[in-house]
Amino acid sequence: MTDLKNRLATWEGALLVLLIGSWLVASASVEGFASTSNVSFLLLDVSEIALMAIPLTLVVITGEIDLSIASTLGLTSAVIGKLWNAGLSIESIFVIALLVGAVCGLVNGLLVTRLGLSSLAVTIGTLALYRGLAYITLGDQAVADFPSVYTSWSTGSVGPIPNPILLAAALAVVVGIILHATPLGRSIFALGYNEEAAYFAGIRVKRIKLGLFIASGVFASLAGIVYTLRYSSARADNGAGLELAVVAAVLLGGVSFFGGRGTLPGVLTGVLVFGVLRNALILADVSNEVLNFVTGLLLISSVLAPNLASLVRNSRFRRSSPPRMEGTLS
After folding, report:
1. CA distance linking residue 213 with residue 192, whole number of Å
2. Which of 189, 168, 35, 191 is nearest to 113 (CA)?
3. pLDDT tens profile 36-60
C-alpha cells in the first residue's frame, strides 16, 4: 500500500490518475466516446503527436527544444507529393523523405552545437524556413492517389489499435530502453542536469545533442509519411500548428523544460491525456478556437504544475526536517 501511495505521489502517477479520471468523465458525459470505433480514432489521431514526442522527450531532457518538427512534417509531405507527381516509386520516396528529415535535424543540430545558438531561437527560425520550403516545393496544391496498400495500412488496425500507434509504441519501447537503461541514456540526463559537469566527465555533449536533433528530424519525417498516407493527401500545410500539441504533451508528461528530468512513459501518458481531452471536445462539437485555447492552457499548466509540485514537496520537507543546532558544544 505504501509503495502504491509513493507511486501515485509522483508526477507520472498523478498524470495516470488524471488520464483515468478524464476517460471516465468523458465516457459518462460525451455520447459515443467509449465506443470501439471512437477509441480507435482517438489513438489514430494522436499517432503523429506520439511519433514526434518520442525524440523530442530526449531533446528536452538535454535542456534543448525543437519547435520545427511540425514544419519538417509539412516539408516531408510536400516532398512526397512533388516526387510522386514526378513518377518516382513510393518506396524510393519514403527513403528520400526520411533523408529530408535527417537534413532538417542536422541543420538545427549544427546551428545549436557548432555555432552555440539557442535552440529556441534556431528552431523558431527553421519552423518558418521549413514551412516556407514546403510551399516552394509544392505550392498550394494537394497530391493524392497514393498506393492503396500504404494508405490502407495507415488507417488499418489490429483490433481497436491503429497500425501507426503500434509503430509509435514499438519505437517508444526501443527509445525508452536507450533512455532509461543504457549509458547513453544516463549521459542524456547528465548533460541536461549540468552540461558543464557532463563535459568534464567525458560525455560528448555536442555529438549527443547533434544526434538527438537528427533523430527528431527523422521521426518528424516519419510522422509526415504517416500523416500524408492517413489523409491520402500531400500538402504543404499538413501538420501546421501541431508542434504546440507535441510540446504540450512532452511537458505535461513531466519532462522539465530546463532539462535533466523526465520519463518516456510519462510523456506517452501525457499524449493520451491530450488525446482524450481533444477527442472529447471534438465529439462535444467544440470549436477550433476552444481547442486552441485548451492546447495553450495545457501548455502553460504543464510548465507550472511540476514546478509548483516541487515547491510544495520542498516546503513539506523543510517543515518536517528537525531544526539545525546553532553553535558548537565546548
Report:
1. 14
2. 191
3. 999 999 999 999 999 999 999 999 9
- In contact, 309 and 62? CB cutoff 8 Å: no
Lookup: cell for 33: 466516446
Cα angle at 65 between 61 and 71, to 5 degrees? 135
For residue 257, the model assigns a pLDDT of 86
Distances, alpha carbon 329 to alpha carbons 227, 302, 325, 326, in Å: 71, 48, 10, 10
Domains of the chain, first to last: 11-309 (1.10.3470)
Cell of 124: 523558431
What are the two backbone dihedrals, phi and then psi, of residue 191, each rounded to the nearest 5 degrees?
-75, -25
Candidates 107, 76, 72; CA nearest to 93 is 76
Using CA atoms, how far apart are residues 256 and 277, in angstroms rounded to an integer?
Answer: 22
What are 273's three cell numbers? 491525456
For residue 257, count CB atoms less than 10 angstroms from its CB and return exposed for 0-12, middle for 13-18, buried for 19 or more. middle
Cα separation of 302 and 316, whole Å? 22
In tens, the pLDDT along 99-112 reads 999 999 999 999 99
All cell numbers assigned to 284: 462535444
Phi, psi of 73 (to 5 degrees): -55, -45
pLDDT in tens, 6-43: 555 577 888 899 899 999 999 999 999 999 999 999 99
User: Cα(227)–Cα(233) distance, rounded to whole angstroms?
Assistant: 8
